[in-house]
Amino acid sequence: MLGSVERPTRRAIPVGPSSPLTPLTTTDRVDETLAYRHSGVTTRVLIIAFLVVPLNALFMCFLQGPRGLEGPTVVSLFYNVVFLLLLFTAVNALLRRFLPRAVFAPAELLSFFILLSVATCTSGQDTMNTTFGTIQGAFRFSTPENGWDRLFINYIPTTMTVNNEAALERLWRGDASLFDPENYRVWLGPMLRWWAFYSALWAAPAGLIVILRKRWIEREKMTFPVVQLPMEMAQPGVPAFRHPAFLVAVGLAASVNIINGLHSLYPQVPEIPVKLWQSQTNDIGRFFHAAGKPWNAIDWIYLCSYPFIIGLAILLPGELSLSLWFFYLFWKAEAIFCSWVGWLNMTPEFPYFKEQSFGGYIAMIAFSAWAARDHLALAWRRIIGRGSPSIDAEEPLSYRASALLFAIPFLYVVSVGISQRMATWVSVAFFVQYYLMSTIVGRIRAEMGLPTHELERLGPTVMQGNVLGPRLLGKQNITSLSVFFSFTRGIRNIPLPHQFEALFFQHKTGLNGKKLLIWSIVIIAFAQAWALFWMLFLGHRHGWGADWAPWWQWASQESWRQLAGWLGRNEGFNVGRCLASVIGFGVYFGLMFVRTRFIWWPLHPAGFALSTTWYMAHMWFPMFIAWALKGLVARYSHAKGMRILTAAAYGLILGDITTGGFWILYSMITRVNVYAFWP
């Protein structure tokens, strides 16, 4: 990082009312104001954040609806929040020049960043698109041909779904109003239940991260690479922005977006292909397909070069960027090998890449828990009232309060699962796995950075359905699991990692982590309400089947087609998938053993698990570019060169986001589909 946010030195401030004999001086009042601003969560920051949230939710819902883009929540650094932070930084620069007494402290800017990141999660890809698609898709698309009515329609719980055919017809047709009683009365009950459910679901992890904070941040000293750029932007004057490498990188990224944007409006302007499927010249998979079997098992493989992904990859540890592109190609090689020996057609989805990856993730959290066993034992003693008060004296919340903060919402969401006709053990297992996977995301992001918020098809709905099957789960349980497919499909837009970053900022800057954590829970509920409202408002106005994203029909059927497949096969315990998970678990531990035994070993085992995600197809080559650049610079230019490269990384990210954001706003205003810089 070019700049660092220093912990502010605070003057002692009297507690309690001042005496007439000892009035506060002007200096005392100034020090009070400065200390208050250094707390981060000030009244003015909260007002700004809560005013921005409705507009941010509108942007997100329009982006994923009428505009038809997958949005910023599929990557770890939400570009809409970075864009807003950049505007905030620009306003702060003007204040510093013309009204210095009103300037925002770095902790205030970082608090704004956390609050808006958490709020953006509520309107993200999995939350809004797949939730709304799932809760009505079975009833909208049930036909005699697909036989859903015979297979599972009568098993779908009705309290959190919508089956009113007339209301759904108006929603899909458009040119209707949400405010008509015949519309809002249909949706009000299910939306209130989903709002309460999501508010509780995402409040619970705040308790977990407090218990893990000391171990991960203070003892393991995790670096949180993803938030390097926001921390730099919060600095007075933003030192990186004055570096020539930053300006050059901004110009390069902006040029790509400007030229490609003009190409989408005026085809005679040549384009610069940097995206997946943008140009056949980037598809090297076509050479393997031409070679026939077994090489065609590689599927498609593109050489993408998204500027802001390259910039983000530069900020990640070199061992992670190396591991990600290496293991992505490893999976391709495994597919070719299985085709060569004739194994690919043995069973569907063989050789179970997802299950191997899942085993790696479970090994990751198991290894972390074992390493933290002493800390967790002390925390447990404190929770039950036997440990020393000094154990959690410096935490934002006591460990007992943190345990209650997790346990109460956990019991609520489990009860919601039971109300959706799940057996008690299924509901408990479902949410235990969900929180385990969420903690894994937080762990990876804290330790090494995470290029994409995506554990695609590794959540409890898919894993339990694939491994246990309807014969063990029963038709009712597996149908109820499918209602909750939405927020578990990719486990991408979850607040836990961002809330953990709030505690990291507390450690680095001294901001008030307790207040920021509490307000992040409040803003989840507030932002969730706006996201639900905008999705229905825009849906009735534009029509999900008319002026809406073309893949909306597919999103509405994904969970139910999957369920129909499970019920049609009527399988029980799947030994092959379970064995693949065990193999993945073993491979991860083997790689971890080698890594700890041999210092020179370059591969990180996390790359083995992370590289199977859908978006790694977009990111593997940017990871290769970043790894190669960092290796060359570190070898021939050392520390000075790395500072230059870091400034260039910031420029690539901000240049791509700002100019790409301009085209998105242009599209929203004019309703003309133009170039989208991501995905």
Please write out the topology.
Elements lengths: L25 H13 L4 H22 L14 H20 L7 H16 L3 H16 L7 H4 L13 H9 L7 H23 L1 H15 L8 H6 L10 H22 L19 H6 L16 H9 L2 H23 L12 H19 L1 H11 L15 H21 L4 H24 L12 H14 L1 H9 L12 H14 L3 H30 L9 H18 L5 H23 L8 H5 L5 H21 L1 H33 L9
Helix pairs in contact: 2-4, 2-22, 3-4, 3-27, 4-21, 4-22, 5-23, 7-22, 8-17, 8-22, 9-17, 9-18, 9-21, 11-27, 13-26, 13-27, 14-26, 15-18, 15-24, 16-17, 17-18, 18-19, 18-21, 19-20, 20-23, 21-22, 26-27
Account of the 3D structure:
By secondary structure, this protein is mostly helical. It has one domain. Helix content is 66%, strand content 0%. It is built from 27 helices and no strands. It has helices spanning 26-38, 43-64, 79-98, 106-121, 125-140, 148-151, 165-173, 181-203, 205-219, 228-233, 244-265, 285-290, 307-315, 318-340, 353-371, 373-383, 399-419, 424-447, 460-473, 475-483, 496-509, 513-542, 552-569, 575-597, 606-610, 616-636, 638-670. α2 (43-64) runs parallel beside α4 (106-121), α3 (79-98) runs antiparallel to α4 (106-121) and α18 (424-447) runs antiparallel to α19 (460-473). The relative contact order is 0.18. Residues 1-24 have low confidence and may be disordered.
Number of domains: 1
Structural class based on helices, strands and sheet pairing: mainly alpha
The profile of the biggest β sheet is: none
Strand elements, count:
0
Beta-strand residue percentage = under 5%
Assign an overall shape: globular
List the helices and strands in order: HHHHHHHHHHHHHHHHHHHHHHHHHHH
End-to-end CA span: 27 Å
Q: How large is the radius of gyration?
A: 25 Å
